[in-house]
Amino acid sequence: MQNIYPPGYEVKTGFDRIRQMLLDNCYSSLGRKHIGDIEFSTNKELISQLLDQTEEFRQIILTGENFPGSNYFDPEEVFRQIRPEDTYAEPEALTDIRLSLITIIRVIDFLKRTGDNGELKYPALNQLTATIEPDRSLPGHIDSVVDENSGVRSSASVELAGIRRKKEELEKKSLSRVNSILVDAKAQGLVSSDTELALRNGRQVIPLPVAYKRRIRGFVHDHSSTGQTAFLEPEEVFDLNNRIRDLEGEERQEIIRILKAIAGKIRPMLPGLLKAYNMLGQMDAVRAKATLAFEMGAMKPRLTGRPLLGWVNARHPLLYLSYKKQDKHVEPLTIELDRKNRILIISGPNAGGKSVCLKTCGLIQYMIQCGLPAPMDSYSEAGIFSSLFIDIGDEQSIENDLSTYSSHLLNMKHLLGNCDDSTLFLIDEFGAGTEPRIGGAIAEAILEKLSQRGAIGVISTHYANLKLMAGKHEGIINGSMLFDSKQMKPLYRLRTGNPGSSFAFEIARSIGLSPDLLKRAGSLAGDKELGFDVQLQDLEVKKAELEKKEQQLRHADNFLSEIIDKYEKLRDELEGRKNEILAGARKEAKDILSGTNKMIENTIREIKEAQADKERTKYVRKRLGEFIEQEDSKLRSVSKPVTSKTREKQDPTEPEVMPGNIGPGDTVRVRGQHTPGEIEGISGKKARVVFGSIKLSIDIDKLEKIRKQPGGKMSGSRMSFDINTKAATFNPDLDIRGDRVDQALQKLQSHLDDAYLLGVPQIRILHGKGDGILRPAVQSFLKETPNVSRFRSEHPDRGGAGITIVDFRQ
Fold first, then answer.
1. Is the four-CA dihedral 520, 523, 529, 531 of positive or negative sign?
2. Tell me: the pLDDT tens digits for 270-289?
3. 209 preceded by cis ω (within 30°)?
4. I need a surface site. Which of 213, 412, 501, 665 has the fewest CB within 10 A?
5. Phi, psi at residue 382, to the nearest 5°?
């Protein structure tokens, strides 16, 4: 049974702000209803389906496709109004229904589109429309009755057209008569020459000074605010205007009859229409989620049914959005917890990012299990937990007479009573709030119990006894928030494996506390406590140095492997070329012999036909001799043997293989290769060989001894110098903007070769957006390049589709 603790989990983690952002992104109340219904789920199939829907809509946004995005109307009130018989909807509501039905139909058609492979482009989104097919004639039927201005068309019925025609004739007659009376009044000086007719109570009236209102027979409908002007309807048009009022009543009754008829047509369709509008609301909600995912760089992780965290470069969503506006960088979080390593104990200085790390875990896991993508790399792995527990911040309660520590203990009681191996717990400042030794002991006992239950969690602490649990209990590992001890500032970067120092004395020294005070504090803390902290700092320094050396060795090993692969490829290509040349030579020789035989046969035939004609016979024999001499020359050229002299001329640097055992100081090479190296030492069946600036350990039986070249120089040292020079000047960014496609691809091939040879893990190609010619050409070329593991467009904030990032196979 799912269990989220505490009840204010969404507020504590910041998910309430995520939900509000989604609500703000919605087009309509339809979508806002679905956003309001978002809830934590443990159903893997449902979570995966929701993530797939959002990811597909994110792709629609990325590609800029024109998804229907207008007229997301919520018809709930209108449908409730017309559900009873003999009811109707106003023309304005019918216009909204018509436009939103057109949007629904366009959405359905958009999601039915297929790709080049004949499969649906957006199968997860299409699934939402699978059972929905509204009556496509309904928008047209509404349009035939209600015009674009939400007025009922005269063509809606014969009766309505007749009523409006009569009304229009009477209105013209009435207006003409009133205008005539106004002209006479102007001529008599009763009104000024610029007086215009006015409208009161739906009738045309003459603005007349009160002093003259009895000069014209009629009915006064109104007076001006000053009381100086009377608005008079002439008696002569009373009957006409009354008839017009009667026709207006008939018109309204006919319109109501027409609207009831439309409502009667819609009423049987209401169940299907409600499903269609529910789908429209789902699309609005999915679009809102995809828009937010796009803004925060969120991706769909690889989902597994097991409880685990396998996140790579995860970022706190709210912090990322805030820093993005300020053009600041958020340090990503890479964390891996599973059945083997279940509990991570994070230590480090205050304000170093421990609490942010916990909140990131709590918010992102909740988002994923609500079906929302999270800001992390797409190859991250996310598990599913049946319950989430978080204890962050001060929970003291004056009303319940609870101190901070008491509230923490109550939280621990709840956790111990409800946790199992599918629980994720996140606890900040574990054990704090009471006497350190007692608090640390209680925290250690609780952590032991949580470990025995198999729960997965992250805690932060300063207590040394909790840091030491990693070496005593299986499944518990240490982690630290890194700190720059030179500049005395936190790096907000998590590293697992070793506990972190609190750097309390260093921070105190940097802010200016007196040396005497710090010396006294050190004596009070004791040598044992200070020694442990110093050891932690030394471990961090040594680990950083080892990692740097390991990286250098890895690059060197990759470089040599690449060189060996290139030599083997070149040898295979030369061998293949040699076989092609020999096969061609044999074919040419065969053709020459075949041609010679035919020439001899023709010559014999011509001599016989000449019947001993000496001149003719002499000419034929001469021609045969010239042909044989010519073909013999060709034959000699294609079958010329490769002598030792020509071999020396072809490869003057080929060293001589020497007999005897291999020992330190000997010059050797790998069998089948040409690069020479020198034996530095021998250990068992392996030899340490120096190739230029690179040392490798190689089996002795794979080496052969060769004569040392004059001067003691090896070609490998020259090659190493060239590579080092290239590495020093290599720029991972390649700018091909403005180049033709053939020039760009030639530059790209050379750049890819250099990058892969130097062991560079990633490069960027700046091709620009322009006319969109270079980008598809570059990406098509990268697909055919075997050394490329993957490529993708740069983040929209850093160039987007105008830059392609390339990762190499390691």
1. positive
2. 999 999 999 999 999 999 99
3. no
4. 665
5. -125, 135
